[in-house]
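stuck on whats below:

***
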Amino acid sequence: MRKLISGALVVISVLVLSPTGASAEWRQDNSGWWYSEGNSYAKGWRDINGKTYYFDSNGYMKTGWVQDNYYETWHYFYQDGAMAHGTVIDGYELDEDGTWIKPSKEAEEARNLILKEDSNYISKMNAAYGAKLTKRYFEGNINKFIANDKWNLPVEDVYVFSLTGSYNDEYCGYMVGKTSKNVYCVPHQGGLSIYQIKNNEIVKTYKWLDSNGYDGNWRNLDKDK
């Protein structure tokens, strides 16, 4: 998962996992375990037999705590290399995607603001799909998370959350401006509008600039205009 939108907003997903080929296999030398891929070897994130692993730049499997430097997130890998998720390690809570939920009063306030301003939509999605707002969040400049040249939102630092279903399906993302406190509901793909939400209403629509005026109201709420 790395961005919230394919080719545009990156959130909410969490990990971009490379597939493994038929000739791939585990190997070990004096420096550790590595995973061969034909004439090469795995580097970065890999999904192998339903488990998630991380390999360093030299191709060796990582264990223990590992930081994603781009998103400034932490993950824990057991001694067999598999990533932990949905548990507590050394007193630190990991979400279902394996990301450490970093305690932050400001981030918690941003999450509560989303639940307040867009409660109707979130409740509807919860009833229909078991969707919940993640505790996991990212933070940084808005341009780090969306292709803002396509939407032209005000530039500021934001907190980013995801609305995910019971099978970790991501339905949309949310951003909260650290300065403005604006709440934005973000589609999981480009070409659709981003909505600013307040008091359960769409108060402003930021259309994708190449959409030729198409909006689509992808949230599909009768009350939204």
